[in-house]
Amino acid sequence: MEGCWKILEEHHIDEDLVFALPQPLEELPHKYDAWIHIAKNLPELIGNGQLRGEVEKLPELSIDDLQGHKSQRLARLVLGYITMAYVWGQGDGDIRKVLPRNIAVPYCGLSEKLGLPPILLYADCVLANWKKKDPSGPMTYENMDILFSFPGGDCGKGFFLFSLLVEIAASPAIKEIPNVFNAIKRQDQESLKDTLLKIQQCLRKARKVFEKIPEHVDPKLFFNVLRIYLSGWENNPQLPEGLLYEGVWDTPKQYAGGSAAQSSIFQCLDVLLGTDHRATGDTSKKMLNLSPAQSHDLLTADDTYPVCTGGLLEVEKVEKVEK
Q: pTM to 2 decimals?
């Protein structure tokens, strides 16, 4: 147990928001103002065809002045948005197969520091891409906004914020994990049943939040616009060899884009309950590798992982909790 919660403290996992980044920064040191300017004006720059020219004019900046986890997460978010916009352009099939070194070098350097591949992921556009309008107000859609947008109007805001709110609604379930382990250690089936019911209640709340997504996300805009900018270059016929990161590697690399399947909350619960994804090609393990390093550490901690992977309920032969 102690090892599990030590990871929480050491790897930026918040007591209240768990895997969501608490109070993300909105600005970087002035040295990086040009990055922020482009990221904040992406829809306009894409629309008027100036985005790629502006990106190509950027100087290659060192990441040495990006001190602290939040600063690095913001810079990675910014460079991720710029990268996706540069590659996919206006979403009309005119794509770029090479990411210029002035973006590729700092982006790959930051990504390595944070233990993530150099492509925009759920950990960026959902977990680190939000703010409160009223800092003292509640965590509600009405009192929140995203830091950066792609073309598609409020479609992106609705998709990213409700993905975040689903994550937050489910997050109390993670706090029950030590109670699950304690109940197993004591062979206390009643306590285990009660704890699993609490987890179930959290998931029901998360589902209610999830059901609000259609009210705020236009499916046509999502499919025809936003989805393009979330697309990766792994098994993508438009970039069959992947993307070349100039100045970093000599050959193109393939990476999957952002997906809600990368949610660390649900990855964690899958591991806890021993969910077997082998029938679907073990997608869960692939998504785990695209989760923040801190959640990966939590899910594979030496003192928790062996218990979880065996299938918690099956190994301990507890009574099945009614759905």
A: 0.85
